[in-house]
């Protein structure tokens, strides 16, 4: 890399100004100077590419920022920054100079002192592999990663493929994990968490009774589910008496900065045996009390969970199992074999086991699971214990024994009529629904409020499909033995809100594409609200009353709201800001979404609006 000048002492202000004003652009560089030595000065330029104006900082060294000065103090013409090396004895310095005049795109970077033996150090936030050196990425690279659309692996490959052999470390993505982290950073910056919390609170009112409970302290909990679906499940337990009805609990990860727990069931009336979502919970921790509160709330809505032919399946997580046993003490509970295998693999890897160790113990446990009687199980266990290590034997007795003998063994499964003892209950039915959900959200992290709306539409889709199936319509077909449970299409009521998974996928894509980089002072209306406003037009839920100068909008819960756009935008719903009804009315007459400035997100006002007009009781303030 071309050295612009050499000097073993600091440039004076006059010298720096003279060098910059008479800069020789042919000797300028457009990338950070790597392996710079004391006395060397480089002229960096970002002419024609404003995004790269800070790339000179990513020179491979780890620095302390020592301050910024404008010189001279009166009528300054030059900006000077100071940096001191973080490694070695700290006697290596970097000085940068840039003219303050408008349009200046050249920066003079000067290195002085003693060159350290160690250039960089480990990243301060690293918890593992702390000896791994951290090389700073160019700021322009991080900006580009945030602007790129697509999955992390696709973005990583696309940027790396565009690179050349001349690219230095820091100008290409470090790994896929860095791309993931930058995408997360972008999402957090573009949607304040308070705004997401407000959106969910607003949807509690707009979606009728879909959201049962919304708690903010001490942890965020959102419990929800369509009550029509709970009624359909209760009808199923009354209709199917000779076969078990499998209900499954599972927690999904990687959808955002929260967990999604879902309860699903297998609908035995239909030949396809579809997996149907029953209820959901968004939560920020995985404690027993969280699961207990969710299941207890669900029990208040669905009263036939403890029916004798209901089988509750879950993973091997202790807090979930304890919550199920506590809330539904009489329900039959089973554990999936796959989760036992997964936990076993994790334990062996954590304790330094090899692949042969993993295969050996997996075969041992599977052989025990396949025992078709309790007597055979204990006999085989007695023989196998002799070949187990002391650590594994302790793990088995503490974590696996009770789970296998009471909830996962073949004789228990066969007794409950789930499967033949040879195959076992291997794959969770929740995985079927999780795969649909992840396909719908395109494997990306999404805002909590957006996911609430997606789950609302997704469950409405399943409610409609079940009712259509009983009317001999749609994708589900009644089994011959359950023909008596057919319904007349003229006597049933279908949900007014109807979106297919493909429609929801488009909704998510719109939400993702709407989150383009904008000024912090002019955030757009929620992309969820924009998409929902457009959906109101598609459903023909907006009617103009010219004589009154208002729009009448039918909301998700069936309620009607009056929307006025002129002279001031106003809606009769409880929202304290530009709501989806106003956005829908604007879109109906061809008006774009407003570019509103920062407005106070007032949860107190929204909560007050949702209360009844008058409180009960006879007490009045004096």
From TrEMBL:
Domain SWIM-type, first and last residues per copy: 561-590
The UniProt GO MF terms for this protein read: zinc ion binding
Per UniProt, the keywords (alphabetical) are: Metal-binding, Zinc, Zinc-finger
Q: What is this protein called?
A: Uncharacterized protein LOC115468784
Species for this entry: Microcaecilia unicolor
